[in-house]
Amino acid sequence: MATNTDSITDAVNSDPAALEQRAGASGRMLIKAVDRAAHMQSGAIVKYVEWLRAGNPDASPSEIQKMMDKHLKRLAMGSGAGAGAAAAIPGIGFVTGAAAVGAESLVFLDAATLYVMASAYLRGVDIHDEERRRALILVVLLGSAGTLIVDAAVGDLNKKNGASVAATLTRFGAPRLKDVNSKLTAAAVKRMGKKFKAAWLGKLLPLGVGAVVGTFANRTLAHKVISNARTSLGPLPAEF
Q1: Which of 54, 125, 167, 181 is deepest in the core (most CB within 10 A)?
Q2: pLDDT given at position 4
Q3: Cβ of 206: how many Cβ atoms within 10 Å?
């Protein structure tokens, strides 16, 4: 069984190009989703949060966060069931389901990366720097393993007690941040690849069972992303 320490060891001296070549389908999907989020215009993220605020002018940051949580869970559950149902089509169910799962997993990853960026912005985290965005997304996807990688990279910066991972990342210069991202990417590809492989197999179960399993698998992934975001991004402000 892999440990958080294993994730750090496996990530050391990771070459981005070589990593993508050996990442497998799910790993490459993850890398592309993170790349898209890293290059996304920050205005799109701000617009999403401000749209929620405009529709709920009296809502606190905590209430806006809960709305974002619901959006992620609804999208995850809907796309998971759709891919599972596609696998039940008589005769061609497996092929159709495999294609649907690939597209659906990409949709979930895109939604998860947007969720992380919007949650960070809601907390006042600077989301304009591409490498910092990449680090934030990967840390949230990895959870405690990502936190350990960042902590190991702090070194002489002496992480402040109680500081969130998001706050710690703001202290990294560009070279150190790129090095951390290389390690985070390697660890995320390995870990997320296993999670999506398990979910993928479950969604292709015959006789419609995959629809139920698909919904449950994606809901579990969504809950994990939400929980990791709370831990990694730090507390929400009491008010705007």
Answers
A1: 181
A2: 45
A3: 12
Question: Cα–chain-centroid distance for residue 156?
Answer: 28
Residue type, 143: G
Q: In 3D, which of 139, 120, 115 has the Cα closest to residue 128?
A: 120
pLDDT averaged over every residue in the chain: 72
Place of tokens 């989703």: 33
- For the whole model, what pTM was predicted? 0.69
With beta carbons less than 8 A apart as the criterion, state whether 88 and 211 touch. Answer: yes
Measured CA to CA, the distance from residue 200 to residue 12 in angstroms comes to: 28
- Nearest-angstrom CA–CA distance, 208 and 65: 34
* Model pLDDT for residues 132-191, shown as the tens digit of each residue: 888 998 888 888 888 888 888 876 555 565 678 888 888 888 888 888 888 888 887 777
CA distances (Å), origin 35, targets 55, 130, 134, 209: 30, 9, 7, 34
Closest CA to 124 of 58, 64, 83: 64
